[in-house]
Specification:
This protein is of the alpha/beta class and about 350 residues long. The chain contains 11 helices and 9 strands. The longest helix has 14 residues. The two termini are about 30 Å apart.
């Protein structure tokens, strides 16, 4: 599986076409999840994949939702990742969900997103670093690690090294940069056989480097079907997924097929239905039962693959509150529910 990004500004507040608020409301979501809020607390790390690649008015995620009939629409509208207020809303919601670590995907999948060799131009990354450096007044502190990836390809040795050098120079010594086994963590996403990552791993002495792939594999997994592979270090959880928009985009725009057979593409997909949150509940309860070091939620805003737990018009803040409830963090995240009236 690979991911893509996109963008276009849409009216921000979550209103229906008649100007009224959608019927879900935060209160309905709370009633749904507060029936059992006494779960044992997960004392490991709850991490979430985060892509800040929505920079242009024609961002791929947003275009693909419109063109290929995406089933979900962001509660914030078709936002820009380099908008500081949008980022602060994301971070508020992550704290409400009980998230500990942001796994920041550096994938340069749009023209506005700088190359892996030029991270000084990554405005979104630096906005995020600024926010994490100024969270002293937050009751829940967030940490960061970076995820190195290229869309439908793999980075070169030079690209890996540029990212690692930049992270070491600017971020890895901060108190908010996540450490695993005593070292700053970097995750490397592999699209195929990649000799470059092997060389980087052999030469590295500073970082904790961990490979990640989709589905069942011998390294960390981005997404799996239930029940997930039992590991002591990392277990992924997701709310469901659907590859149709991703595959349709690749057929039309990556491979440039003259007349893509979209029905055939749909037929080859094996989507996992969300079941009104029950699919996520099963995966998260399974991960809790097996108590790994890291529970990895894939992902925060992977709209392309329909993996997102970011609030949407269709399900409100349901997945934020499910995450807080099922990880036993309901009470400690209460201040972020109480402040919700200030947000869209």
């Amino acid at each position: 599986m690979t991911r893509v990004p996109s963008r276009r500004m849409m009216p921000l507040p979550c209103l229906q076409r008649d100007g009224t608020k959608p019927k879900f409301s935060a209160d309905i979501c709370l009633k749904r999840v507060t029936q059992d809020n006494t779960m044992d607390r997960f004392n490991g790390t709850v991490a979430v994949w985060f892509g800040m690649h929505h920079h242009g008015h024609d961002s791929r995620d947003w275009n693909n939702i419109r063109e290929f009939g995406g089933p979900y629409h962001p509660l914030l509208g078709y936002y820009r990742s380099d908008d500081p207020e949008v980022l602060r809303t994301h971070l508020h919601w992550m704290r409400r969900a009980g998230i500990d670590m942001i796994v920041y995907d550096m994938c340069p999948c749009e023209e506005a997103k700088p190359a892996l060799t030029d991270l000084s131009r990554d405005r979104s990354l630096h906005l995020l670093a600024d926010e994490l450096s100024n969270q002293r007044n937050e009751s829940r502190k967030l940490s960061l690690c970076v995820w190195i990836e290229k869309y439908a390809d793999d980075p070169t040795v030079e690209e890996y090294q540029c990212v690692m050098d930049y992270v070491r120079a600017h971020f890895s010594d901060k108190d908010w940069y996540y450490r695993y086994n005593g070292k700053p963590l970097i995750v490397t996403y592999l699209n195929g056989v990649n000799r470059a990552v092997g060389q980087i791993e052999r030469d590295n002495r500073y970082f904790e480097l961990r490979r990640v792939r989709p589905y069942y594999c011998d390294v960390w997994s981005y997404v799996e079907e239930y029940p997930q592979l039992i590991r002591t270090d990392w277990i992924s959880v997701s709310p469901g997924h659907d590859a149709y928009m991703e595959l349709a985009y690749q057929a039309k725009y990556l491979r440039k097929e003259p007349s893509p057979d979209f029905q055939a593409i749909r037929n080859q997909c094996r989507p996992v239905d969300r079941e009104d949150g029950n699919a996520y509940r099963r995966q998260l309860e399974w991960a809790m039962q097996n108590n790994p070091d890291i529970i990895f939620v894939s992902g925060w805003n992977d709209w392309q693959y329909c993996l997102q737990i970011e609030p949407a018009v269709e399900y409100g803040r349901q997945y934020l509150d499910l995450t807080a409830q099922l990880t036993g963090r309901w009470d400690e995240t209460a201040p972020y529910r109480e402040d919700e009236c200030q947000l869209p």
